[in-house]
Amino acid sequence: MVRFALSMMVVSLLTIASLAQKSPPNVEITIPKSYKAPFIEGSGELQTLLNTAINDAVADAKNVKLEEVAATLFDLRDPAKFMMAEVRGGERIYPASVVKMFYMAALERQLEDGKIKMTPELQRGLRDMIVDSSNEATQYILDVLTGTSSGAELPKKEFDAWQYKRNRVNRWFAAMGYTNINVNQKTHCEDAYGIEQQSRNYKGENRNALTTNATARLLAEIVTGRMNTPSRTATMMDLLKRDPFIKTTDGDNQATGFTGKLLIDRKMTDVKLWSKAGWTSKSRHDAAYIETADGLKFVLVIFTENHATDKEIIPNIAGKILNRLRERRRN
């Protein structure tokens, strides 16, 4: 009888395993029924303000061309209606580490839906991806999100299946109405190899691409709580929180080397900053949300190309925006 019971137990376990293999859990990232896309309205007044700020900043820089700058501004004082302006805001640009904010949002969605379970290692990876902008942590997070991993090149049929899974984050953002972006690649300190290079078609194709419009929308949706529950929104905001007045000798620190430099230069200790920066040998970007003591609440995303070491252009634009928003409010 004991031998029979053990045999039946083994059969039962094998049956359960077989069923599990045939019916994998739903790991697609899905939009909750409560989600509503934000109402976004262009503002002529903001557009004039942004145009003037960028034109003036480019003139100050002298060696920067208008076609090397893209920017989007969202006024969030009314969270029910995002008033916006953009300059080349629909231009697809390699985003460097700014893409990590998109992976963070996707991970928090999967955690909330119970499709991914938080572990100490995943917690460490998420923190390092956003706070330290670690590329290695980002590679790990994207593997977790998509069920893919780096490795050798694959035959076409196997590669197509791999690539479909790797596009999981893209499908989620597309379903929410995000357009003209590509968020399916790992970030690297040097270069991609093997299947990662195969995914780029060996020619730099299919690299990550963002627009400042899409980036500003995501940051605004996080700030206003549209992307997730209050507790998960708070988690994302904590990861994005920056203190420009920390002591550091790193000129590319996210808190001090981008929009935060404006607050340092003006000694604006009463201004709150949340941001995600990105930079390469050719680009310098920042996506920032700013709250001032006098009531301004705005998202400002600035991407610059061919001026990776220029630490003045982004804070210069941000400063001119801040000045004009305050003048607009007084008038």
State the main characteristics.
331 residues; alpha+beta; Beta-lactamase; seven-stranded mixed sheet; 12 helices
What's the level 1 CATH class?
A: Alpha Beta
Mean pLDDT: 92
CATH superfamily descriptor? DD-peptidase/beta-lactamase superfamily
What's the number of helices? 12
Q: What strand order characterises the main sheet?
A: 1-3-2-7-6-5-4
Which residues sit in consecutive blocks of at least 5 with pLDDT less than 50? 1-24
SS-based structural class? alpha+beta
Number of strands: 7
Architecture (CATH level 2) name: 3-Layer(aba) Sandwich
Q: What is the helix/strand order? A: HEHEEHHHHHHHHEHEEEH
The largest sheet is: 7 strands, mixed
Helix content: 40-55%
Distance between the termini: 90 Å
Per CATH, what is the topology?
A: Beta-lactamase
Shape: globular
* Tally of structural domains: 1
Portion in beta strands:
5-15%
Compute the CA-based radius of gyration: 22 Å
